[in-house]
Amino acid sequence: MRILLSVAILTFLLASCSQAEKTKETSVKNQVSSDILKDENLIKAVLKPLSRKNVVVKQVKKVNLDVPGFFTFEVTLLDKGRNVEINKYIWISRDGKYLVLDMFSIKREKDKVLIRPLAPQKRIKQLPPKKEDLSWIKKIDEQLTKEGIPHVIGKGEKKVYVIWDVYCPFCYEHIKRLSSEKLAKEGIELHMIPFPVHGKASITGTMYFIKLSKEKGAEGALKYITTLGNGNFRDYVKEFEKESNAYVKGLSEKERKKEEQFVENLKKELIKGKVRGTPTIIYIPPNEKNNMGYKILGYKPLNEVVKMK
């Protein structure tokens, strides 16, 4: 209702302006430009609620895409949380009565029907990360050390923080390829920070992984979980979940609540740091003043990460 209201108000204001313009002597070219501006503002109004998700409209421009009965606009959205640009088409009917957010072309070939979305060639563009204050990750790191939770692999001046989840398939695949020898060669010290993003199962799984880390060390615990399911993620999930549930079931209520609360607090602190998902890689270059560094959502080869200045 709120979206419809904002659009209705904006449309009313623009209609009032266009009525005033009719009293003036304007060229056909200027009138067309005003119509385009009206449509662009309407599109911006419709997409404005995305700002609550930290997504803003960067640009709206009319493009020549032959769709009978419609004007086509290419919209560039900036997702500040993921630091990406998203390009998409939006259509407004030539009579100004309809706005379409998605459209598909239909092509029939004998007994087949081919349907494809109408979209720009480059839909998503990853932007270079910007430096930001990352002092909060060091506080979280210190808290894990204070609690006696092994989470560091290797020793080096290039400290890389990998925020991961025990049920993240992308994290799992990269953990399988972790090599302490390669880390040492690059002078990387890897800090593995657990972030339970997959609900209750992740809370339980993180509690169990912390227990494994205390028994086997950080590297040993990671190697152990990748042997579960013989390297197959789906089989790993089944085995790890079974072991995790058994571990938590064996805890006293007091122990369970204490460990659960620690993991919940860890999750809250990472959310405060605006971590959006896993894996997230954080790197503060050596000798960087004021803890300024980079936060990268998704995987990036660590040897490339440490080249960032």
Automatic annotation (TrEMBL):
Residues 1-20 form the signal peptide. It comes from the Bacteria. Keywords: Signal. The keyword Signal applies. InterPro entries: Thiol:disulfide_interchange, Thioredoxin-like_sf. Gene3D superfamilies: Glutaredoxin. SUPFAM superfamilies: Thioredoxin-like. Transmembrane segments: none annotated. PROSITE patterns: PROKAR_LIPOPROTEIN (PS51257). This is Thiol:disulfide interchange protein DsbC. It comes from Desulfurobacterium pacificum.
